[in-house]
Amino acid sequence: MPNYKVFNEFTDPLAIVDPPLQASQDGAFFTVSTGPVSVAANGFLALQLIVPANVSRTVYIARFLGGSSVNTTIDFFFNATFAATGTTLAVVNGNAGISRASNTSSRFITQTTDPTTGGARLNSIIQPGGPLVVELDGRFIVPSGPAARTFYVRMANNTNQTNLLAANISFWEAPSSGTS
Question: What is the structure's pLDDT at 80?
């Protein structure tokens, strides 16, 4: 006699939900975007996502979307910063039906010299122009700790002309599982 309890998935289905989808349904998936920004010849655009100290939340980077009109270098860093104030950006909940705010903050800057201070470079990408999608699926993780931590994107205009750039980070937040 067949064992329907083991083999019949109709009565006991296995369902797996992607963490970003579940986070979005729970109101814990967020995006931040610079929008299109004009960057001077050989200039820089830096986007910083800041996880404040001691918030007991961990940020999982889901995706980077970016683009440029011509040749650009894109670098990802942990814990880099820039000294200037920069422009504050809204961190937007990916679920329009939930008003939960992110625990993070974000800002960006454009300037002719590299604004980057410190940090550990994770990746470096040469983009010849056009859109770029980097699916990270939570592989870059920024936990809250005793000091603020950052996920930082630097885009360098590799041309001697003005370049239109855009940088977008999508991420989800979850309760921290322990001390970090």
Answer: 97
Closest CA to 49 of 136, 129, 107, 130: 107
Q: Express each pLDDT in 10-36 by its tens digit.
A: 556 666 778 888 999 999 999 999 999
Of 167, 175, 163, the residue nearest 42 (C-alpha): 163
Distance CA 138, CA 171 (A): 8
At 151, the amino acid letter reads F
Instruction: Map out the domains of the chain as residue ranges.
Output: 22-175
Rounded alpha-carbon distances, angstroms, from residue 26 to 20, 36, 100, 108, 178: 10, 29, 9, 28, 21
On the CB side of 75, CA atoms within 13 Å amount to 19
Whole-prediction pTM: 0.88
Residue 162, token pair as written in the block: 């003005």
Pairing of strands 116-117, 87-89: unpaired
